[in-house]
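lol forgot to send this yesterday, sorry. struct tokens for the thing we talked abt
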């Protein structure tokens, strides 16, 4: 029996649609695996009632199939589904790390990112790896077709999760199919600024680098209260705010001394709009870890 904790993540960070991701300190999924003749899944925790236990429809079950590693899989959800905090990815990442160790498969973490992305494909229709990469590797990650980079960074973040659901499938449906050249140039400038900010542990550059004009406005329209929450976060000292993943969570960067105020301002702004919300204060966190191994 083996247990792995895999963290929530925030994908895109505005300018890095389907490319950038970052591991958060919390929340996290905890996945326990035991060898079995065929895969079965049991889900408890946040939003468990919305998550299929059929292995073909659960990201962890798809990972077990991809690794040819049948197991009884217990998923304790810390990351609520349809949150924009990489819920389906956290289970996929934890299962990949756990089953790779349980069956001694010897895959590298980079190989496990590809396996876990197949789990994501099963639920969202596309194998984007920008949540599973940081959930497995930790840090700030850059995913391309030809590989994945991970760098450690020390930048305070606030993820604010309102009590509304937006499915990744729906949020991918509103992404424009084309963009104007000046918006593309702007996005490249932002993405480079954000990457430099992560390298330098500079919250101002990270926040400025979140600015993006094509995907974010289309997604923001699906999130009640978006403009008011961004404004409140900025007034409280956020250096940048954007949609986390496919939403409805928002992610903000800030200096350490402003983190508490930014978190409160975001929650209050959602509440002023009649929407309950909670904030997670985080830094750029670690990736999936084995927390129990009973041989
Ligand atoms: N192990 C799992 N954990 C969570 N959701 C799962 C899992 N397996 C399948 N799903 C399904 O995946 C969907 C949730 O994934 P979705 O990508 O919409 O949310 P998310 O992972 O929180 O968002 P994002 O990718 O934007 O951060 C739900 O339909 C849920 O039933
Ligand atoms: N890059 C993905 C992350 C959500 O799974 C998206 O924004 O659709």
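and heres what i got for the seq, position by position
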């Amino acid at each position: 029996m083996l247990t792995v904790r895999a963290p929530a993540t925030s994908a895109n960070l505005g300018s890095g649609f389907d490319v950038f991701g970052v591991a958060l300190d919390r929340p996290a999924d905890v996945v326990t695996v035991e060898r079995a003749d065929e895969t079965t899944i049991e889900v408890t925790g946040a939003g468990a009632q919305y998550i299929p236990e059929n292995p073909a429809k659960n990201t962890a079950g798809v990972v077990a199939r991809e690794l040819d590693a049948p197991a009884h899989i217990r998923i304790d959800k810390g990351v609520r589904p349809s949150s924009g905090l990489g819920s389906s990815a956290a289970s996929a990442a934890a299962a990949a790390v756990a089953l790779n160790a349980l069956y001694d498969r010897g895959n590298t973490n980079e190989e496990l990112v590809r396996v876990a992305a197949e789990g994501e494909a099963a639920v969202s229709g596309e194998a984007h790896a920008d949540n599973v990469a940081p959930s497995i590797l930790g840090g700030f990650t850059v995913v391309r077709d030809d590989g994945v980079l991970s760098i450690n960074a020390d930048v305070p973040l606030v993820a604010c999760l309102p009590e509304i659901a937006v499915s990744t499938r729906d949020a991918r449906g509103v992404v424009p199919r084309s963009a104007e050249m000046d918006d593309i140039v702007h996005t490249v400038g932002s993405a480079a600024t954000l990457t430099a900010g992560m390298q330098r542990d500079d919250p101002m550059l990270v926040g400025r680098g979140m600015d993006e004009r094509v995907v974010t406005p289309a997604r923001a329209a699906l999130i009640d209260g978006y403009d008011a929450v961004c404004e409140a976060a900025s007034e409280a000292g956020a250096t940048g705010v954007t949609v986390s993943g496919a939403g409805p969570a928002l992610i903000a960067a800030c200096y350490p001394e402003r983190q508490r105020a930014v978190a409160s301002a975001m929650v209050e702004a959602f509440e002023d709009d009649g929407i309950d919300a909670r904030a997670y204060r985080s830094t750029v966190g670690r990736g999936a870890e084995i927390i129990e191994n009973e041989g």
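The longest helix spans residues 181-200. anyway ping me if u want another try
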